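pinning this so it doesn't scroll away 📌
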Amino acid sequence: MTGRPAVAVTGLGVRCAAGASPQELWESLVRCRSATALHAFDDEGTVVYPAAAMTAFEPAGCLAPKEVRRTDRSVQLAVCAAVDAVADAGGLHVGPGRRAVVTGTGYGGVISQENGIGQPDVLYAPRLMHNAGAYWISARLRIAGPSLTVSTACASGTHAVGEAMQMIRAGCADVVVAGGHDSPLTPTTALAFGRAGAMVTECEDPASASRPFDVGRRGFVLAEGAAFLVLERLDLARARGARVYATLTGYGRTSDAHHLTAPHPDGAGARACMEQALADAGSTADAVTHVNAHGTGTELNDLAEARAISDVFGPRAVPVTAPKAVTGHGLGLAGALEAVITALSVREGLAPPTAHLTRLDPRCELDMVVGEPRKILDGPVISNSFAFGGHNACVVFDSPHGCGT
């Protein structure tokens, strides 16, 4: 760790059903205000399931009409969230060649892909490319340094944030716009996840359909959106008097190498990933003040993650939050959205409650935050993402107080 530049979070931007800004998102979390409602995935209304759709999204403020026609909805969300994050940071204060962008997406331009099957136009391929978001963000923000897209299913957003930190540490860039985006609310996607038994298709109350770690869980709730962070060398951020939400101090990534969709049942890969992230941060498990869980609300994932958390920190030893109870599961978006939430937790000194958790699965030996936000001390906070394909990614955030440059 000696000699590595410290990395600051100086800007946040989100566009999702739980909030069109970080402030709106935070309010939804602390008030347990669910973003989920019944959603018609097709025009005929034959595929209707709970989902977290951003119904009021309008890209016109960030993209010209011609640009809107050339981009998938997922990319439109990404550009708006990235522009918001940069505005929140007060701009990018280094030359274009010292700027970078890293995007994470699981499904790319899946809406454009499905709409164009059998009748593609000349822009079909550019709309559905997974790296389209990285292109449009780099073009809009004059980013001439490294541009990278990561696609590791539900870990994509966290991998994007972690790889962005590594770029700064390696000296490849001084400022990186990093995040995740997905807009997978298509009938084919919904039917596929529903038939696989991973997604909620029936429930008495759609608003409480997402119930991570609860005995009554029935799977995840599909969501759409984008979330981006501006990561910056801490010394440069301090020199310009920037507001610093948190520092990004650790990053871990491992593979279960176990099953295409199911996690390792004892959480071995997840446990190793958290331990790797903490070691990278120069921290220990007993210093961690809060865990932002992946918490999808599927039985296999909840149990594996709970075992991993208990193994690393001890049973019921650290406060745990599962934000997907409010936000739904945005696939490639999820890790980036939860990185934003974790940075806000560090800034506010609060762990948001987990909504809709009425009866904790007794097999999950976790100290879940419920009902009201819980105060947390300054110290490392870890955010987890554990994805299909056995892809695991964890990032560690900490208070900037006392952090060297």
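📌 and the second one:
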Amino acid sequence: MDYLDTAIVLTLVIITVAEFSALTTDKLMSMIGSRTRGYDYWCECVVEEVRLSLIHDVDFTAAQSAHVLEKLNILMAYEREKAKPYLNRSVLLNNILSTASKVSAPKMADKLAQVLPDRIAKCDHSATSRFRLRTGVKVACVATIIALALNISSLSLINELENTDADDLIRLQSQIESLNTRLEAEDDPTNAGAIMIELRSRLNQRSDLESKTFSVGPIAPGINRMSIEWIFGCVLTGLLAGLGAPFWRQQLSRLMTLKDLKEQVSVDKSAGLNDSEVPESQWGDASVGDASLNESAIKDSAINVPSGVTGKFIPTNISWDPLSNQIDLDVIAQGKPERVYTPEELVHTLRLRLAPQYNANLAAVNIRPESLKKLANSFFSSN
């Protein structure tokens, strides 16, 4: 699997663990009163900042300050009784300024309105940072427990996504077929015995690969829970989940953007020459007998291609897949050919033309059906 695909799958797994851990942590925090303690810490900070602002910034008297703080404490106590106590900043400021305007001159209330938001902001930042840190640690601990219980090891997952078992199976199957051929043609019993031993070994390897199961997940068999690698992988999953689901959603968005960009760059590179870039002299004559083409480099003996394919045509929207070594494209025909010919003839000519630019051993050149349909009436035979 491509490294970007591996990173995307791993990120999705971590997001799932982080979301579930955050929900579990939230329930636990509500049960043990942790959220209420965080609210109390913020209230203490706000009350102290308001008291200092009333005394030093606007010179309220002790009686005036006491009245404002009393109303503030009543409001905070009312919010504290809720399951998830939270006091909006605008509500808080409006309550303080409304109370202050009733016991002081308008100028003093206006001055308080200018300096108080900055003091409240300091409390918000301090309390939020502290709450996020403690919550992140708790989420990481819960996520680690979940990862250990459900066998969600980041290291094992990466290893599973990056394994090459499919390629190994193909290679072993090729070796087994070759050994079978040798065994059928071997007359010497000694050599035949050696071939059979090697063949049995390859068959056992193939059987082991075919019976191999996914090692990640709660029902994965044969988990070595005493393995340092397994424990570290699960702890790593928990620590990564502790960064929070919002963080990993951002990373997933960036990875998806990077993947789209990579695919777009790959398409642009493989597109080759478009309509405006292809000189007519290069593609104007479609004769297969062009001496500049290295036809011997292309192994296409399975198709009997007649000579004399002529006509002006331009390949467009070329998409080359380097993994399968195939090209998909559209064809624009210009002019009238000397005779009607089949799509296979044009495909073969295109393959000869494109091979030097992409790969001398192109697996296939595929003309898209929509393009063939447009050419069918006047350019191709019915077969």
